[in-house]
Write a structure and sequence with these properties.
This protein is mostly helical. The protein is built from eight helices and no strands.
Amino acid sequence: MSNPAPKKAGQADRSGRPGRQGRPGRKVEREVAFQILYSLSFSPDVDEGRLHTVFANSPDLEAKGLTPDPEGFTWELVRGVWLNRGEIDEAIARYSQNWRVERMGRIELTILRIGMYEVLFAPSTLDVPLKVAINEAVELAKNFGDENSRGFVNGILDAAARALEAGKEQRRAE
């Protein structure tokens, strides 16, 4: 199964600011993580060992100048989202009004999983501010989803962030 392509020509090559050691920036790494996680959504029984293999063999990594080694921001997102997806889906369900997780489109659910991981589950060492996590998820929704995706993603992640800021939700970093 092929990964979804960005909707607008030219945006696929947008690398954002260069990252450490000449690597692409986090915007590109999030996009690649999305592509890998989206493809994994068609094979839900992948364990951590197989996850390494799927990650290392992703053509999206090389195409974007990323290493296939399980390290760095892209790997942390893929591994963190994949291993915590049950809890992440529970969090998504808490903040999605009148939407069951199993009825959400794969693209939107994958984006929400990444965003919710960054909002509630990512270790502090990833150093992702709430507003950045939400904005980047909305950007993924603009690039890969339909015209309603960005509002849908923003609403759910913003509700989770507000609950976190109000002390009604706690970070569950690995």
